[in-house]
């Protein structure tokens, strides 16, 4: 799908380059209530909601890039100025990108159920997610889940009901909804049931953030490593408590080197390129590439420093 760069720039946010939490008033150019949709698919509901509520700012999260492309095209065609989309995992980013008690509503429609136990870590419902909701929702703000999977709805209802901050409505079956997704209409025609869970926040609870709110620091080396210096780093894993950092691959660049790396904070993983480059003035810089730069987390900080320390140690021993 072809989407012009200006359209992506208008609607897709790169929050890693913004402050944490994001200043949404600056992003939208106005102060307005914020509603969030997690897993917006092709953007049909996001566009519909934004059109029906012009006084509300909308933020959508999705992971597949093709969904980002389709949704930004739809937002542009609908001439919706008050919606933005983010390519990222809302299970972790929800509490990081929004200030406490700042979101009016969080909507999640037909998430991937991940029925196998080995995929349980991918499920959205969890005590951690409930804590994130209690952190970002306004008092009397709500979370709404709509799914065709009864077990998923029941587990979500169970976890939210166990959290002291929420009042959870009884599980609804085939509730009236002003907007139905294409698949929802198809499933209803086939006689399948749709389930809805609505939880209202009664008390805000602050949550720990794992993203660092300071600007990412550029590190330095006193020498430009050779391939022989860098090769031993390949497939190396650095660990410190919940922070894990792995070096996957190595590439030569005109001004130095690129390391393909993966950082993990708990189960929040980021894959990015770490640059080691020589400037014209002779300085050797170590910093993430500007292309899909990572969020600045404890694992990112720990991993970059571990790479530098390993290179310095090897140089001194050599």
Beta percentage is 25-35%
State the CATH architecture of the largest domain. Answer: 3-Layer(aba) Sandwich
The helix/strand order is: HEHEHEHEHEHEHEEHEEHEEEEEH
Number of strands: 15
Question: Counting H and I runs of at least 4 residues, what is the number of helices?
Answer: 10
Please give the largest β-sheet.
Answer: 9 strands, mixed
Low-confidence stretches: none
Based on CA inertia axes, which overall geometry fits? elongated
The share of residues in helices is 25-40%
- Compute the gyration radius: what is it? 22 Å
CATH superfamily of the largest domain: Vaccinia Virus protein VP39
Mean pLDDT comes to 91
What's the CATH class of the largest domain, please? Alpha Beta
């Amino acid at each position: 799908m072809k989407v012009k760069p200006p359209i992506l720039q208008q609607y897709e946010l790169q929050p890693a380059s913004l402050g944490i939490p994001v200043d949404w008033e600056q992003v939208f150019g106005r102060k307005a209530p914020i509603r969030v949709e997690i897993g917006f698919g092709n953007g049909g509901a996001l566009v519909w909601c934004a059109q029906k509520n012009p006084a509300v700012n909308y933020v959508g999260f999705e992971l597949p890039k093709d969904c980002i492309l389709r949704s930004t095209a739809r937002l542009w065609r609908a001439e919706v100025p008050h919606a933005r989309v983010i390519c990222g995992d809302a299970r972790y980013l929800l509490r990081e990108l929004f200030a406490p008690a700042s979101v009016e509503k969080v909507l999640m429609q037909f998430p991937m159920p991940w029925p196998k136990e080995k995929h349980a870590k991918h499920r959205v419902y969890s005590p951690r997610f409930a804590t994130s909701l209690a952190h970002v929702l306004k008092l009397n703000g709500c979370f709404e889940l709509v799914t065709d999977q009864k077990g998923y709805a029941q587990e979500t209802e169970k976890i939210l009901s166990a959290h002291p901050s929420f009042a959870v409505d009884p599980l609804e079956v085939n509730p009236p909804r002003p907007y139905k997704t294409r698949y929802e209409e198809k499933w209803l025609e086939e006689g399948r049931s749709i389930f809805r869970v609505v939880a209202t926040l009664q008390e805000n609870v602050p949550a720990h953030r794992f993203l660092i709110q300071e600007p990412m620091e550029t590190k330095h080396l006193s020498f430009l490593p050779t391939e022989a210096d860098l090769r031993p780093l390949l497939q190396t894993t650095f660990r410190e408590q919940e922070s894990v950092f792995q070096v996957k691959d190595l590439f030569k660049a005109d001004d130095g080197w690129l390391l393909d790396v993966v950082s993990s904070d708990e189960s929040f993983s980021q894959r990015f390129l770490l640059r080691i480059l020589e400037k014209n003035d002779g300085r050797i810089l170590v910093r993430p590439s500007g292309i899909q730069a990572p969020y600045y987390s404890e694992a990112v900080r720990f991993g970059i420093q571990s790479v530098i320390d390993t290179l310095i140690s090897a140089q001194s021993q050599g």
